Amino acid sequence: MEWGPNHYGFDHSYGSLTGAVDPWTHLYRKGPYEKTWHRDCVPLDEYGKGNVTELVTAQAVQWIHEARKPWFLYMAFNAVHIPIDAPEEYKALYAGQSFDPDPAKNESRRRFAAFVTQMDAKVGQLVAAVDASGQRADTLIVFTSDNGGLWKGDNPYTSSVPPTPFLSSNAPLRGQKAELYEGGIRVPAFVNWPGHLKPSKVTAPLHAVDWFPTLSAVAGWRPVRDLHWDGQNVWPIITGENPSPPPRTLYWPDRKQSAVRHGDWKLIVDSQGRAELFDLAADPYEKRELSTLEPDRVRDLQARLQVLQAGDEKQTLADLRDVP
What we know:
- By secondary structure, the protein is an alpha+beta fold.
- The protein contains 8 helices and 9 strands.
- Strands 6-7-8-9 form a 4-stranded antiparallel β-sheet, covered by helices on one side.
- Helix 1 runs parallel beside helix 3 (103-132).
- The protein is globular.
- It starts with 13 loop residues before the first strand and ends with a helix.
């Protein structure tokens, strides 16, 4: 497991090295990466021994209590990714709920609700551990998702969990995971640090790539040279020091579509060159397609997209290997 977390700056790691696993078997999909459960990059045979969400949370809580120096914990829950299932204690909370008249869809949504509740409870345990260890005043907590939810999902994993014909919802946003409408790429996030951050809402567009430069700045680390980060330090936006930053250009590449946003305007272009334009300030749910009414904006965003795509195509692994 030479590509595991311990080879990239982490002192300890535990869990799966794949994007998701079955919550009971701990297995990925059939193939070379089916078994990646590990501790500190050493294979660990805990397959089928306990619930994944419970196990990784228990380990994280232990590390929090043992921490006696500045520390960073990255907790990548498999919940609420497919396969969708949770321990009986969480499913029992929704035994009497009716989410859909179709029995299979109703059972599917009950499992999903239980899975969400389990993750919420585990986040609560992590925060309680920080409180109990006396470190809350010195701890910045960031919660975020990676993409929008799926409306339904099969189960291609090594698993006995049934598929989920009725899964999540991104309403009122349009679209779902693997699509570049806001329902696929706009996700919830919050930042908590008592004594440092006041209750507020950030409306400026932020991106996942901003977390690395932001957390580095908050921690006081400065690179010795320009690392050409895609993101930027958004701490002044989060604190309210600069709540209305100037417009920035954001980019989402994908095999079937690409999207670019500058300010409030967003352009989606598919592999055939068809373009859709939306004004997210006036139409956050992307109901009004404006490309024929705003040809100048389309040309401007297309030009930005072409520049970004050209840079993306030139990026290679060699560009990344010399980063200290």
